């Protein structure tokens, strides 16, 4: 009996890491620099084994690009067809829809929410996105107003940001596993603050927002910064943070990405909030 218990505990202690696939290869941001950073961020936890699927470059034949999504617990997108890049082949799109709908985890990082404006199911997965011709036909703006989320159907373009700057992130859903235990507000390193994102906004929960100050070229609105979306049986974590490597060195980005990927994989978060997590008055860069 004792031996059986020890074996059971050993199996738990040495459980195999969850497999994560980062998809990149095209992006209007420097994916060649940011993918290795995110790979290390995730592998440093000991919870994840990370592979990378790199699509052919812009202008090349992408018809054979068909990652085996179903082999992974989570797919993290560092991909965007912004600026004339390549849309995934139709079969790859269908594979991805089936993967997430049937329970696969998906994480959208920063410019991945610029991608695929005409792919309806992808836009349902990310809930809101920007640029690439998005407008009121794409769905509402989503803002935090008067202590709650408001869907704003005002006509206008989707997607904008002011000049990069340090800004506060405010937690709005303190009970969600990804942000539970984080400070109510914390400073994020210099980064783009996406605003005016719009889309289907279905099955969306906003975990945290950031104030897009007009003094930095923003909207004067509290914009969604960290989100979760349900798509079929799948769990989606969407973060607007992470424009470049310096932004990804913020402990706030690192910890929320690690916890967001774990939640997308399992629906739970086992990672503790580290002592160096930023506060409302102090940045923390690793």
Classified in CATH, the superfamily is: Class I glutamine amidotransferase (GATase) domain
In DSSP terms (H or I, runs of 4 or more residues), the helix count works out at 6
Globally, the shape reads globular
Q: Structural class of the helices, strands and pairings?
A: alpha/beta
User: What's the CATH topology label?
Assistant: Rossmann fold
Q: How would a crystallographer describe the biggest sheet? A: 9 strands, mixed
Order of helices and strands: HEHEEHEHEEEEEEEEEHH
Total domain units: 1
Poorly predicted regions are 4-13
The amount of helix comes to 10-25%
Q: Any guess at the CATH architecture?
A: 3-Layer(aba) Sandwich
The total beta strand count reads 13
What this model shows, in words?
The protein is of the alpha/beta class and 286 residues long. The protein has a single domain, classed as 3-Layer(aba) Sandwich (Rossmann fold). Helices cover 22% and strands 27% of the residues. It contains six helices and 13 strands. The chain has a nine-stranded mixed β-sheet with strand order 2-1-3-4-13-12-11-8-9, with helices on both faces. It has a two-stranded antiparallel sheet with strand order 5-6. Strand 12 (221-231) and strand 13 (234-239) form a beta hairpin. It is globular, with a radius of gyration of 19 Å. The model is unreliable at 4-13 (pLDDT under 50).
Layout: helices, strands, pairs:
Elements: H1 2-13, E1 18-24, H2 31-43, E2 48-54, E3 74-77, H3 90-101, E4 105-109, H4 120-126, E5 141-145, E6 148-152, E7 160-161, E8 165-171, E9 185-191, E10 194-195, E11 204-212, E12 221-231, E13 234-239, H5 245-248, H6 251-266
Parallel strand pairs: 1-2, 1-3, 3-4, 4-13
Antiparallel strand pairs: 5-6, 7-10, 8-9, 8-11, 11-12, 12-13
């Amino acid at each position: 009996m004792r031996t059986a218990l020890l074996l059971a505990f050993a199996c738990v202690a040495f459980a195999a890491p969850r497999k994560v696939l980062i998809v990149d290869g095209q992006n209007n941001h420097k994916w060649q620099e940011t993918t290795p950073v995110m790979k290390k961020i995730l592998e440093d936890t000991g919870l994840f084994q990370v592979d990378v699927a790199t699509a052919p470059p812009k202008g090349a034949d992408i018809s054979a690009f068909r990652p085996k999504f179903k082999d992974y617990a989570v797919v993290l997108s560092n991909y965007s067809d912004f600026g004339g890049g390549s849309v995934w082949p139709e079969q790859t799109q269908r594979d991805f829809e089936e993967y997430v709908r049937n329970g696969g985890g998906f994480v959208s990082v920063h410019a991945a929410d610029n991608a695929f404006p005409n792919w309806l199911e992808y836009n349902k997965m990310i809930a809101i996105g920007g640029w690439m011709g998005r407008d009121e036909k794409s769905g509402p703006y989503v803002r935090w107003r008067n202590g709650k989320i408001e869907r704003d159907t005002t006509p206008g373009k989707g997607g904008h940001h002011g000049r990069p700057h340090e800004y506060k992130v405010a937690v709005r859903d303190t009970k969600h596993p990804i942000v539970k235990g984080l400070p109510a507000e914390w400073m994020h390193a210099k980064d783009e603050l996406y605003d005016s994102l719009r889309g289907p906004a279905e099955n969306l929960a906003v975990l945290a927002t950031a104030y897009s100050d007009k003094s930095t070229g923003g909207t004067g609105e509290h914009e969604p910064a960290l989100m979760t979306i349900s798509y079929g049986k799948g769990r989606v974590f969407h973060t607007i943070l992470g424009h470049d490597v310096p932004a990804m060195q913020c402990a706030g980005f690192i910890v929320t990405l690690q916890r967001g990927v774990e939640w997308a994989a399992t629906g739970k978060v086992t990672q503790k909030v580290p002592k160096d997590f930023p506060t409302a008055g102090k940045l923390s860069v690793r």
